[in-house]
Amino acid sequence: MTTDPGATAPHQPRTPSEGRGTDAGTSTGGTPDASTTAPDGRPSGFSTRAVHAGLEPDPTTGAVVPPIYQVSTYAQDGVGGLRNGYEYSRSGNPTRDALQTALAAVEGGERAFAFSSGLAAEDVLLRATLTPGRHVVIPDDAYGGTYRLVARVLEPWGVAHTPARLGDPDAVAAAVRPGETGVVWVETPTNPLLGVADIPRLAEIAHAAGALLVVDNTFASPYLQQPLALGADVVVHSTTKYIGGHSDVVGGALVVGAGVRLPLGLVGPTGTDAVADAVGFLQNAAGAVAGPFDAWLTLRGLRTLAVRMERHSANAAELAAHLQAHPAVTAVHYPGLPDDPGHAVASRQMRAFGGMVAFRLGSEARARAFCAATRLFTLAESLGGVESLVELPAAMTHASVAGSALEVPDDLVRLSVGIEDVADLVADVDAALEVAAREG
Ligand SMILES: Cc1ncc(COP(=O)(O)O)c(C=O)c1O
């Protein structure tokens, strides 16, 4: 027995290597689908992979859903006699492995890693790929927690950052410091302003400088957007959102593309320059892993991702058009609107435009009144669940960027549009707009 359980190398999930860059030709829209073939060589579209990847009937009972291996340690057949490589659940757990296999399959990555939250995943990736003295480019309207991690945890550690407008590739190129920038961090669409970044173009810019292109794909989900197939190196998710999909679990994930190497000559703690090795080491060494039940819930959510995203997108498109036509609304941010600045790029790289809509009401008082007046839209942080949510980013999810270059307008309202009947959602929004319009 080791005195420090899990101190040895992390368990290697049995993830099929699916490569990247191929187009399934099975998707409904313009987004490249990362993989066309199942391990047995038969064609496999996104929904098939989402339903089947990581799912082998339980060898003992035939249970068609992977068991929740709610266990911390595993019996050994003699010292070091591990059964299927399992030693300790921080290092490896079959339920987490099933989720990781499925995540790698739906994003078209070489390996995936599941964490206890999206921010835990981000922390591991940034510490695996950057060292003190290095630099990261971040979106100028990044998720507030990402900004807080970079500005208040990484910066004191010695990693500098520059916010850049991702919709403007020249601005990103100007922010990159060749030889110093290890990561260009992309959100698309962004949280909360729904800005759109051209992934292939930004991949060119990052790669020309020797940096990695990392895409936080939380808002789009792997169903709507396949960043690895578009040239990104690593995908990040808060699986708390659309992948989990039911507002009942917090989690995060990293999916690493095939053969991706650490930037700027870095060698990882296991002596290789593979990003997957460095991330796998840190997942175990720092320990913020997804627990078995959380992994199981997330895997269950992933199975229905495709059908949920279709409905989220259809409902959000209808609401965005409705809001745009409403006299009380001064601006609507939704990449599906034909006059949205991100529409052309989003049409090229997304299958549909997602379930998030942001809009402005001209004053903070009106925005607060709106948030207090909805009935179906619950006032709450987070997003991506089947139920509709509303929030005021400046005071809630993005309070941590107040006073920074990333500050968001105080009259901005963000909707996470659920999968309810859209007529009921429109009626709820109309009633709340009427209340808001009474404010000065
Ligand atoms: C775009 C985005 N990335 C990352 C995160 C962080 O994820 P978590 O809350 O699971 O730590 C969030 C959370 O809201 C998010 O919206």
Please tag this protein with its features.
440 residues; five-stranded mixed sheet; alpha/beta; binds pyridoxal-5'-phosphate; 12% strand; Aspartate Aminotransferase, domain 1
Secondary structure: elements and pairs:
Layout: H1 46-52, H2 94-107, E1 111-115, H3 118-129, E2 135-139, H4 144-157, E3 160-164, H5 169-175, E4 181-187, H6 199-208, E5 212-216, H7 221-224, E6 234-238, E7 252-256, H8 275-286, H9 292-303, H10 305-324, E8 331-333, H11 343-349, E9 356-360, H12 364-373, E10 378-379, E11 389-391, E12 412-416, H13 422-437
Parallel strand pairs: 2-3, 2-4, 4-5, 5-6, 10-11
Antiparallel strand pairs: 1-7, 6-7, 8-9, 9-12, 11-12
Pyridoxal-5'-phosphate binds at residues 117-119, 143, 145-146, 187, 191, 216, 218-219, 238, 240, 250, 252.
What this model shows, in words?
Mean pLDDT is 91; it is low at 1-30. The strands form 2 sheets. The protein has a 7-stranded mixed beta sheet with strand order 1-7-6-5-4-2-3, sandwiched between helices. By secondary structure, the protein is of the alpha/beta class. Helix 4 links the parallel strand 2 (135-139) and strand 3 (160-164). The radius of gyration is 22 Å and the shape is globular. It contains 13 helices and 12 strands. The chain has 2 domains: 46-302, Aspartate Aminotransferase, domain 2, CATH 3.40.640; 306-437, Alpha-Beta Complex (Aspartate Aminotransferase, domain 1), CATH 3.90.1150.10. It has helices spanning 46-52, 94-107, 118-129, 144-157, 169-175, 199-208, 221-224, 275-286, 292-303, 305-324, 343-349, 364-373, 422-437; strands spanning 111-115, 135-139, 160-164, 181-187, 212-216, 234-238, 252-256, 331-333, 356-360, 378-379, 389-391, 412-416. Bound molecules: pyridoxal-5'-phosphate (PLP). The site of pyridoxal-5'-phosphate (PLP) has 15 residues, from helix 3 and helix 4. Pyridoxal-5'-phosphate (PLP) binds at residues 117-119, 143, 145-146, 187, 191, 216, 218-219, 238, 240, 250, 252.
